[in-house]
Amino acid sequence: MSRRSASVAIVLVMSLVAAGLAARQTAPEYGPAKGTLIIVGGNMAQTSPLYDKFIQLAGGPEAKFVIVPTAGGNRRPDGTLIEYKEETLIAPWLARGLKHVRMLHTADPKVADTEAFAAPLREANAVWFDGGRQWNLVDSYANTLTEREFHKVLERGGVIGGSSAGATIQGDYLVRGDTSGPNVMMTAEPNHQHGFAFLRRSAIDQHINARNRWDDLIPVIKKYPNLLGLGLSEDTAIVVTGDTFEVMGAWKVAVHDNTRVYQPWEKPYFVLSAGDVYNMKTRRIEKYGTGVRPGRGGGGGGDIPAFGVRTTSPVGTPASARR
Questions:
Q1: Looking at the domain 31-322, which fold is it?
Q2: What is the pTM of this model?
C-alpha cells in the first residue's frame, strides 16, 4: 500500500470512529431515538385530546394501528382463557375515523414468538396498550419476537401509546408488577420486575391523583436511585421524544428526580403541569406551559423554587398541583 493510500485509509477510519462517537453522544438515554411515546395515567375521557394526539402522531386516520388488550387479563381465576372480540375492541377506534385497525392478543408467549403472530406489527404505524394489570403483558410478550417488533415500530418513526397498565409497561422497572395485587410496588417475582423499556431508566406509576399514589414511587427511587420516577394523574400524559417530554392533559405529573437536593420538610419530587417540557437527560425543566422559560438560581438548575422542589399542602398533596 502506498503512503497516499495508507493516509486515505487512516483518515477514513478516523472519520468513521468520530462519526460513531458523535452518534453515541447524541443518542437519547431515555426515550426512543425515533418515534414517540404517549404515556397516559389512566381514566381517559372519551373526549380527551390525547386520543387525537396519538392519531396525529401516527400519521392520521389512514395510518395502521394495532390495539393490544392483553393487560386486561389472560386467564380467569379458574384457569380458562379470556377471549377478546376484535370487532368490539376496535369499534371505539373506528368511531374516531380510523381506517386500518387490528387487535393483537395472545396469552401464549410461544405464539407471540412466531412470525405469523407478529406480522401486523411490521406494517404498523402505531401501537396502543389498554389498561389492566401490566404483568399480563409481560407474561405474553416479554423476550419474544413480538416485543422486539414493538421496538421496531418506534425505530421506523412510529408511535406507542398506552393508558394505566399500558403506561407502566412502557417503563424500564415495572412497578406494581406483583400478581398478588396492585398495591405491591416492588414485587419479589423476578419475571415481573421489568417492563418493555420503551422509556429506559424509568419507573412509571399511574392513577396517582384519584388513588392518592403521589408518594408511592418514593421507596422505588430510594432503592433504585439511577431511575427517574414518573407518576401520572388520570387523563394526563407525557409525550416523549428522545430525552424530553411534554405534559398534556387534565392534571399533573410527579417527577421523582434523585439528582435534586430536597429539604427534610419537602417531598422528594416535584410536579409538572400541562405544557411543561422536561429534559430527562439534563434533569431540567426547559419550558413551562405558560410559555415562560425557567430562570437561573436555586437548586437543580434553578427551575423549581425552594431548592429544586415544590412544597406540599397541609393534606399532603403537592401545593403545585393546585396551580
A1: Rossmann fold (3.40.50)
A2: 0.84
